């Protein structure tokens, strides 16, 4: 494509046509994959101004290539339950883009896992990992296996079967998985053990999120939640504000939610509510994170048990109503599409000032638009929750060097990464004509890094 005059009307329409045509192509090729199409649509909308400045990306077909995964691996996972019955689940690994480094992204065990969800997560990961500034590509994997109600041995047998197949496609310089929903350090431990058994060696850098006692990084467990709060803190700073004295609501009570609450409290906030998939608790005295840790990390109990220890707290059945709790800052940290437009409107009416996405794509497109239209500060997931993968990349470095950094060293580096991410999102939004819009800023800043590497590596 020959483009000589930039920023003129003719070229503007060429850039728009390009985005429109490629989106049509993506839609036709990925019919019915609603989460994946939702994620691509958001990116495409943000990138229009980029193609106005950079016709070379059109010339190199970057949008067509960046939306097509390098490969999607689907496989059968057969395993035997405690009664001796054979069970079959489906396993996935989407290796989306390795222009910046080995594929990197978590593994999710949840009954809702399907091809669309895997692809959306891996696609988002492409931009997120680029934003960290570290040498990591992007992938995501998982299975529709439901760990709820399974015995420890069933989880081990399933995980070993899953990794026996996946081991053919991963490795420290090839693809480095980590945890996600339903996959914590216990499951990573089983995967790591089985992988090494199959390979007959000890490849420390093949998984991240390992136990710090054997190859994991200190500070990894806390990284996503802490990182989200560090990012929101930077965002608040530009509005001369902080977490001090703020009322905060956090959805979820898993890995991300727990450490987001912990850091917000450390910075002087009062966390009023948190949830699990059954319901939410409201504690007017402020959520006691140690009780949540005990319930979720050690006892595997439902969140309603919290009220047995804290008599002032109230349990509400149904997790979605958590957004009716009035707050200054809302941190959705549970799952995708958990905050819809109606929730956004209630939050806005209740005076919310800032939103930080700890989970991946927790807010629907309508909800984001409503926040932006009302001047609510909005921190998008691919920037705000990149702290987890950033510390995962630090785990890879430590494994390669065969040494361990202290928790303070890791936290300091994490803080710096989150500040850098904030600055690059902020600057990209400004230089492409959308000051303050961090959704657009994150998409553009992440895209530019990957796109430049793709151009440099030639067409393939
Ligand atoms: N763990 C990480 O390092 C990391 C990094 C980046 C992004 N994420 C994303 O953060 C989100 C949470 O991941 P996690 O690692 O904390 O998982 P987790 O399995 O530790 O916790 C998930 C929590 O959400 C709750 N939940 C599920 N559906 C819910 C709903 N509809 N409403 C309220 N609560 C609900 C579960 O009960 C659980 O408490 C996911 O979107 C994940 O992809 C995680």
How would you characterize this protein structure?
With 460 residues, the chain is an alpha/beta fold. The chain folds into three domains: 9-68; 71-205, Leucine Dehydrogenase, chain A, domain 1 (Rossmann fold, 3-Layer(aba) Sandwich), CATH 3.40.50; 222-384, Rossmann fold. The chain is 49% helix and 15% strand. The chain is built from 17 helices and twelve strands. It has helices spanning 9-29, 34-53, 55-59, 62-66, 115-131, 152-166, 185-199, 220-238, 255-266, 289-298, 306-309, 341-349, 365-373, 381-384, 387-401, 407-431, 438-456, and strands at 71-80, 86-97, 103-109, 138-143, 175-179, 247-251, 270-275, 279-282, 314-317, 329-332, 354-356, 377-379. The strands form two sheets. A seven-stranded mixed beta sheet has the order 9-8-7-6-10-11-12, sandwiched between helices. The protein has a five-stranded mixed beta sheet with strand order 1-2-4-3-5, with helices on both faces. Strand 10, helix 12 and strand 11 form a beta-alpha-beta unit. The protein is globular. The two termini are 18 Å apart. The protein binds nicotinamide-adenine-dinucleotide. Nicotinamide-adenine-dinucleotide binds next to helix 9. One of its GO terms (molecular function) is glutamate dehydrogenase (NADP+) activity. Substrate binds at residues 104, 125, 128, 179, 392. This is Glutamate dehydrogenase.
Q: Regarding CATH, which class of the largest domain?
A: Alpha Beta
Cα-atom radius of gyration:
22 Å
CATH architecture of the largest domain: 3-Layer(aba) Sandwich
User: How far do the termini sit from each other?
Assistant: 18 Å
* Low-confidence runs: none
Give, in order, the helices and strands: HHHHEEEHEHEHHEHEEHHEEHEHEHHHH
Please work out how many helical segments DSSP would assign.
17
């Amino acid at each position: 494509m020959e483009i000589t005059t930039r920023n003129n009307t003719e070229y503007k329409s060429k850039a728009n046509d390009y985005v429109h045509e490629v989106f049509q192509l993506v839609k036709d090729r990925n019919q019915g994959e609603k989460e994946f199409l939702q994620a691509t649509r958001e990116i495409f909308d943000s990138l229009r101004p980029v193609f106005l400045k950079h016709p070379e990306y059109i010339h190199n077909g970057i949008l067509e290539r960046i939306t097509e995964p390098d490969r999607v691996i689907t496989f059968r996972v057969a395993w035997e339950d405690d009664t001796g019955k054979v069970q079959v689940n489906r396993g996935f690994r989407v290796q989306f883009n390795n222009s910046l480094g080995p594929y990197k992204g978590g593994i999710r065990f949840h009954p809702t896992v399907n091809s669309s969800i895997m692809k959306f997560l891996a696609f988002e990961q492409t931009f997120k990992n680029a934003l960290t500034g570290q040498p990591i590509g992007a992938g995501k994997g998982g299975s529709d296996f439901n760990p709820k109600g399974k015995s420890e041995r069933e989880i081990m047998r399933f995980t070993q079967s899953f990794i026996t197949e996946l081991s053919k496609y991963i490795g420290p310089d090839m693809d480095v998985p980590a945890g996600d929903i339903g996959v914590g350090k216990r499951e990573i431990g089983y995967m790591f053990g089985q992988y090494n058994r199959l390979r007959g060696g000890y490849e420390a850098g093949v998984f991240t999120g390992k136990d710090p006692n054997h190859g994991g990084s200190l500070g990894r467990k806390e990284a996503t939640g802490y990182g989200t709060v560090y990012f929101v803190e930077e965002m608040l700073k530009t509005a001369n504000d902080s977490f001090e004295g703020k009322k905060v609501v956090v959805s979820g009570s898993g890995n991300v939610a727990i450490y987001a609450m912990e850091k917000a409290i450390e910075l002087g906030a009062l966390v009023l509510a948190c949830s699990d998939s059954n319901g939410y608790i409201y504690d007017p005295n402020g959520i006691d994170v140690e009780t949540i840790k005990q319930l979720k990390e050690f006892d595997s109990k439902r969140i309603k048990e919290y009220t047995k220890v804290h008599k002032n707290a109230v349990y509400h059945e149904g997790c979605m109503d958590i957004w009716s709790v009035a707050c200054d800052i809302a941190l959705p940290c549970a799952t995708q599409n958990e905050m819809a437009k109606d929730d956004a409107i209630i939050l806005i009416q209740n005076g919310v000032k800032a939103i930080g996405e700890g989970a991946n794509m927790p807010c629907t497109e309508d909800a984001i638009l409503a926040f932006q239209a009302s001047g609510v500060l909005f921190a998008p997931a691919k920037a705000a929750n990149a702290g987890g993968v950033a510390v995962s990349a630090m785990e890879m470095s430590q494994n390669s060097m065969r040494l361990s950094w202290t928790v303070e060293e890791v936290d300091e580096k994490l803080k710096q990464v989150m500040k850098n991410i904030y600055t690059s999102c902020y600057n990209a939004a400004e230089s492409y004509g959308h000051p303050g819009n961090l959704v657009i800023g994150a998409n553009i800043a992440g895209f530019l890094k990957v796109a430049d590497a793709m151009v440099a590596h030639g067409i393939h």
